[in-house]
Specification:
3 helices; 137 residues; globular; 23% helix
Length: 137
């Protein structure tokens, strides 16, 4: 049974990365919208487009800001990168969301050791479950 998740793409800010355990595939949403905060008036709505993803239980969505993939390591010119993020997700998708997040952040901190953070870093990990929680009374 699959369900749909709606996403407003903002490529300059965050590009969701999805893993689907059933087929052991990790992929990125492709988006053409503007980044969040680039236009700060009512015309921004003209530049966004809803995208939908039919998820299955166990799928993982990772949403992050560019400060994650553009973090510097090595001699200060190496970037963490989307490929490395994708590899970490491939290695950890079977864990719960909190452990996936910790695994990625530990790897990021090891990669950037000794280098200052030059941009905000936000990482959100969502692991879809088979059932919705019961409403609170």
């Amino acid at each position: 049974m699959s369900r749909a998740a709606s996403y407003l793409p903002a490529p300059a800010t965050a590009t969701p990365c999805i893993t689907t355990p059933c087929v052991e595939e990790v992929f990125y949403f492709q988006s053409a919208g503007l980044g969040l905060g680039i236009i700060r008036n009512d015309s921004y709505e003209k530049h966004i487009k809803n995208q939908f993803y039919d998820y299955s239980p166990g799928d993982v969505m990772v949403i992050y800001t560019d400060g994650i993939v553009e973090a510097r390591g090595g001699d200060g010119t190496d970037e963490y990168g989307e490929d490395r993020l994708k590899q970490r997700l491939e290695e950890s998708y079977f864990q719960d969301a909190e452990n996936i997040k910790s695994f990625i952040l530990d790897d990021l901190n090891g990669f950037t050791h000794g280098h200052p953070i030059h941009d905000d870093q936000t990482l959100l990990v969502i692991k879809f479950k088979s059932a919705q929680p019961l409403p609170l009374a």
